[in-house]
Here is the input.
Amino acid sequence: MLAHDVLVIGGGGAGLRAAIAAAEESDRLSIAVLSKVYPMRSHTVSAEGGTAAVMRENDHLDFHAKDTIFGGDFLSDQDAVEAFVEEAPAEVIQLEHWGCPWSRDPDGRVSVRPFGGMTVNRTLYAADKTGFHMLHALFQTSLKYERIVRHDEWFATSLLVEDGKVCGVVALNLHDGQVCPIAAKAVIICTGGGGRIFPFTTNAAIKTGDGMALAYRAGVALKDMEFVQYHPTGLPGTGILITEASRSEGGHLKNKDGYRYLQDYGLGPPTDEPVHRKMELGPRDILSRCHIQEYQKGRTFEGPYGHYVHLDLRHLGEKVIDKQLPFVRELARNYVGIDPVSEPIPVRPVVHYMMGGISTDIHGRTSLGGLYAAGEVACVSVNGANRLGSNSLTELLVFGARAGRAAARYALERPVFPSNPLAKIASDERRRLDQRFLRAAGRERIADIREEMQKAMENGVGIYRERATMEETCKTLRGLCERFAHIGLADRDAVFNTELIAALELDCMLDVAEAVAHSALAREESRGAHTRTDFPKRDDVRFLQHSLATHTPEGPRITYAPVTITRWPPEERKY
Ligand SMILES: Cc1cc2nc3c(=O)[nH]c(=O)nc-3n(C[C@H](O)[C@H](O)[C@H](O)COP(=O)(O)OP(=O)(O)OC[C@H]3O[C@@H](n4cnc5c(N)ncnc54)[C@H](O)[C@@H]3O)c2cc1C
Here is the structure.
């Protein structure tokens, strides 16, 4: 049977950073990275805009912390934010030493661009392909360590738990369909977010919340799941992201009258220069709500994929666009047939990021012994109720490294692999997959259930929310879970059975969707990305708390835990 000291599920930015940190902790450890896609195809590769860290003399760790906490509408744990901003600069310098080619100013210093909700230019970038270069640097660095082995194109289907501790995972080898137990002293979940529970998202097809569901089913709570970020500028139809960097370089958002409408929502006055936290550089939750209000006023365009506004880059000129935003030009040309040098780009809000996730402490530890989580799948929580753009890539580095080190130390203290009957547990899992999916003769179809789930999520827990539609969504999701028990697959083959993968992913998405909808229904206030028309104000008396969704057979049970406040007492969030 396969056995590793530290097993990382996920080969994206967080997973690779965690694996490297574990390898550096001790040369006695065997470390594995298991990933359902080849690591370089993880969603991190598609990050465009940049990664935030204090690098300049006009900036300060406290400014970064305050912006993050303010942007998160005071739901961030401030001890986590302090650790985050402190360790960020060393992490991005380390990444450069590993080969990440940060864009530079003429004087040789790394460039920093403004980003939404930040008061100082602090977002490092590699043109508008930051995630690609970061993931490359991490991947090639991981190859240096012989003690890091990889299981590429393996799908983790469940965690092995014995005596209240995790002791490995069961995974499906997609190459041959074998269901294999893998023993591990410590497991780090780095499986990314789950934007695919919504119909319209910037997220890759693989972002189905698998790791959240695995931990949730094993009894670990999911924290702050109601906070789902919409990004204000996705392409209609595909949902492909047009990075915030296009606004930080000076792009304008205009309604159908060619008017920069953000000035009507307290974000003005408009200028030609990007101004911190104003106009197009306001935070994402506010900009997404402004879009919906423009739509309600009849001031957006209507197209085959619904309402949209214009992102106008023409005044930046071809030279700036080609140097700073080459990927934006490529995406606009290829996917909407528009050259941003001469035409504005149609954009609308799209689901982009999940602030919530597996509840961890600042070392990535969960409530289950030996289980850690980092990256978008985890909720530490740095991002609170609304993440500021460019903080996620930094979070992968800081908390990926922290989780890697903590898991390594934990594994070093556990001398032997558990001698319990892992093979038996794994054979039970094999039977479950067979009975539930491969041999099931049900008539329900994956695509139908998935589509209905996505529609229910957009209807009930989209940008604006209220009780009646959320209750309806919760009910619909429960019904879909029941229908899911009766699915049938047409493909029963063992080799690269993509239909089986789709079923496993949908199973995870239904759990994650329920956690989101129930957490949202229970939070009777508006905070950050969670906006309720029936409770329009923030309510610190009742809800300055993290929600925790715990799995029960009847659906999620919601409880609350305190928010850690260190130096920044809650105040009104105004821009
Ligand atoms: C288009 C786009 C642009 C973005 N731009 C920025 C930006 O400029 N700045 C910023 O800060 N943030 C940005 N973000 C957010 C940020 O990129 C992500 O939050 C971050 O990259 C997530 O990294 P991760 O390592 O947590 O997960 P991912 O990179 O998503 O990796 C997840 C890994 O888990 C594996 N996995 C998942 N499920 C399983 C399973 N069941 N079994 C085995 N393996 C599994 C996958 O194979 C993959 O390797 C962007 C996001 C998107 C979608």
Summary: The longest strand covers residues 179-189. The longest helix spans residues 498-522. The chain has a mean pLDDT of 95. The radius of gyration is 23 Å.
